[in-house]
Amino acid sequence: MATPRHALYGRGTHAISADEAGDVPLDRDELALLFSNAFTAPGYQPPVLPSTALELLAIARKPDVTFPIVARLLEKEPLIVSQVLRLAQSPVYRRAEPIRSLEQAASMLGLRALADLFLQASLSAKVFRAPGYEGPMTQLREHSIATAVVSRLVCRETSLSDDYAFLCGLLHDIGTAACIIVLAEEYGGRGQEKPHAPLEGFWPVIRDTHEQIALKLGEMWQLPADVRWVIGHHHVLAAGGPVHPLAAVVCVADSIATALGRGFELETDASQVARAATSLSLTSAQLEKVTLEARRLLSPT
Fold it and tell me: How many CB atoms sit inside 10 A of residue 161's CB?
């Protein structure tokens, strides 16, 4: 996807000109209404995740869960399992010896990390797909995965558990993905009647609505309460109270991922990133350490 054409795209403050909007068929208010109607309609179906991914997410964090229980779930999705094993070979999870089986992956990475990988593979296969918008969806997927990886690194520089850090980073822009899916259904290139509409002109409305849409998806998917809160408030950081630590983690991780060339739109605001880092008591040296490690892990092999 091309870089957004104006420095304020994605912040809801830049008026779209006819040039920049390309063939966007609706004005801003109409587009906001389209999204509102789509996501609040009684029959709305969220982007589908395999039920296996959600079940695995729930049970992998139980203290008494064993690998045979997890294995029975994973066997339901053999195609996704093959992707999980491929992902387990990436620099992010690289170990001294290759990982060749799920049991080995569970032993070496842990069941929680295995569940996170399974959800990552599920999202890549099932959710980050929108005909006519393949480029933006690929970039969004790569940004989400990078933010997830960096979120875990940020957590390790704090006293926070990284239990849900990867998950929050992976899902933080899921509302954006849902918006693009709606646009693909409406303007994704169904012959001459519905020509492809450039995505740039939709940014301000997507930017203003993606958090509330993410919150709705989190509820529909029955994600853990902390995860739902973070994906629904990761830009504001707090809602009438102190900064949520996981929201701060995602904000910092998003900024680092973007600085390393894995950005998607201009989502981060420097003052918010500084606020997030301060709330986590992160020093400049720690941020530099995370950035260096993230660069190593995210670099192509």
Answer: 10
